[in-house]
Amino acid sequence: MMRYFQVSERQHVLLEEYKENLRKIVRHLEECSPTMLIVLITPPPIDEEGRQQYATSVYGEKAMTALERTNEVAGNYGQRCKKRRAGRKTIASCA
């Protein structure tokens, strides 16, 4: 049985893979239209306490104690997104 807070390997993208995917996407868009303004949106903040409370309310003692999504991890992906825009016609927005 899969619990709400269980991480699926299919859903998680490693930070370096995320960086490479983002690079490929931006490069493709730039090739399609050199004048295009590209807007990159960083991952949104995580309501860690709310996610934990929800898991506990649904699964009780079986709820995982360590969240799979945290502001620290989301911040790492956000920083990669912001670094991607350097020297390009892109805007990185904090969600």
TrEMBL record:
Gene3D superfamilies: SGNH hydrolase. Keywords: Hydrolase. InterPro entries: Iah1-like, SGNH_hydro_sf. GO terms for molecular function: hydrolase activity. This is Putative SGNH hydrolase-type esterase domain-containing protein. It comes from Helianthus annuus. The lineage of its organism: Eukaryota, Viridiplantae, Streptophyta, Embryophyta, Tracheophyta.
